[in-house]
Amino acid sequence: MTEELDLSRRRWLKGGLVPLRPTNCLPWSVDWFGFTAGCTRCGDCLRACPEQIIVPGDGGYPIIRFSRGECSFCGNCVDSCGQDIFFDKQQSPWRQLASFGDACLAKQGIYCRSCQDVCNAAAIKFKPRPGGISRPELIGDLCTGCGACVAPCPVQTIAVLCQE
């Protein structure tokens, strides 16, 4: 587990034990500094998540682990929290998009479309390529950052990254 509290000497000397900013914060959460300042690490959001993708991360702060599944944007994590660390659920939950790593089978010339098959938003397309295997292309305006494409990837090369 790479997102647990890192008590290494180098990290301690660099500034102490403040939690590292994770790749994936909870939907509708304020910026990471504001989130960690107000989060009590009670675990209510972990228990409220029907997909069970919210897990304790660095320092016990909740993060999203897309390798466990996708976010349905149900809002239970926000509703279960008694702290003022989330913004209005009527707004977009976040701005993060899927990203395909170099180990992608299609990029290696092997037919695979597992990410496209599970993308309900139809944000992943495979355009035909003359003389080769089609590669995944992300339509950023359609991608919700739900992470549905992450777990089914046979080589675990898809990440959902914040667009800041």
UniProtKB/TrEMBL annotation:
UniProt-annotated binding residues for [4Fe-4S] cluster 1: 39, 42, 45, 49
Residues noted as binding [4Fe-4S] cluster 3 in the record, renumbered to the chain: 143, 146, 149, 153
Gene expressing this chain: napF
Record's keyword terms, sorted: 4Fe-4S, Cytoplasm, Iron, Iron-sulfur, Metal-binding, Repeat
Family: Belongs to the NapF family.
The protein's name in its UniProt record: Ferredoxin-type protein NapF
InterPro entries in the record: 4Fe4S_Fe-S-bd, 4Fe4S_Fe_S_CS, Fe-S_Ferredoxin, NapF
One Pfam family, short name: Fer4_7
Binding positions ([4Fe-4S] cluster 2): 71, 74, 77, 81
Keyword match Amino-acid biosynthesis: no
Needed co-factor(s): [4Fe-4S] cluster
Function: Could be involved in the maturation of NapA, the catalytic subunit of the periplasmic nitrate reductase, before its export into the periplasm.
Assembly description: Interacts with the cytoplasmic NapA precursor.
Boundaries of every 4Fe-4S ferredoxin-type domain copy: 28-59, 62-91, 134-163
Location in or out of the cell: Cytoplasm
Record organism: Zobellella aerophila
CDD domains associated with the record: NapF_like
